[in-house]
Write a structure and sequence with these properties.
Low-confidence stretches: none
Mean pLDDT: 83
Strand content: under 5%
Order of helices and strands: HHHHHHHH
Distance between the termini: 42 Å
Number of strands: 0
Helix content: over 70%
Length: about 140
Amino acid sequence: MVLGGMCKEKRLEEASDMFEKTKEMSLVPTAVNYNTLFDGYCSKGDLEMAFRYRDEMIEPGIMPTVSIYNLLIHALFMEGKMVEADHLVKEMEDKGIVLDEITYNILINGYCRTGNATKAFDLHDEMFRGFTLPEGYIDH
């Protein structure tokens, strides 16, 4: 809770310090704790720190969640790093993490923004083949 509040207030250094102190006290961080930091650092545009925490969480065997990947992919698209975003999607698939409607929404919007409508439509079709309906989809 406190960690989340610090991140929302953009007090990321303090949040990171608190996070490190909890680890020093032999408390085991969870994917939720990491997700909170990812959200803060991705919102700030500090992908270096976000990826550092991603690597750190993988080391002891904590698997990044689809929501962590979504934050990273979105941040990469916001910085125009489509190739890196594609690599993360491949990593997700290799690890057996299923892309959800949020992932597809991020990817489709990202490719539309960069002028790659063909890739966006391909992803749209892929999403429907996987029976993942877009959020808010209404069938008339």
